C-alpha cells in the first residue's frame, strides 16, 4: 500500500515537472507547416542500413569518417561491399590488420593498439570504396580511396540477358553477387574482400 501511494506521488510530481517544460505549439519558433525531406532514391547509407548481408562491413565503415559521404547526395561512389559471410571467413578480421611479425617481445600500450586497430579499419574500408560512379565494369583498373590500391574488373563476354554486373570478377577472386543503385552511387555486393596485399 505504501509503495502504491509513493509511486502515485512520484508519478504525479514527474508529470507536473514535465508539463511545465513543454513548448507551446503556437510558438513563433515553430514552422507553420512541416515538410519531411524525401528522396526518390535511397542513399548509399540507406541501402547499407537495410541490407542485412552487409551489416559487418557497415559496422566497420561507420567507425571511420569516410562513411559520412554515404549519406551525401552529391557524392559519387562505387562501394564494393563484402557479404557478412566473406568477412567472417577472413583469418584476420579488418581491425586486426596483417599478421604481426615474429614476436619481438615489445609490449604496446592499449592506446597504441586502439590506434593501430583504427588505422587498419580505415585502410580496409578505403580499399572497398572507388570514388567514382558510374563505372564501366568491362575490363579495367580503378583507384580506390586507399592510396596506391587499384581494383580490377574482368567481365566475361556474351552475357546479353544478364545485368552488366553479373559474372564480373573483382581483383581476380571476388564475384559481384548483387547490385543496389542509390542516388549517390552503387553498392556491389561481393563474395570476398578486396585484398590489401
Automatic annotation (TrEMBL):
Start and end residues of each FAS1 domain: 41-194
Pfam families from the UniProt entry: Fasciclin
Signal peptide stretch: 1-19
KW Signal (keyword) present: yes
Keywords, alphabetical: Signal
The organism's place on the tree of life at top rank: Eukaryota
Keyword Nucleotidyltransferase among UniProt keywords: no
Name this polypeptide is given: FAS1 domain-containing protein
InterPro entries xref list: FAS1_dom_sf, FAS1_domain, Mug57-like
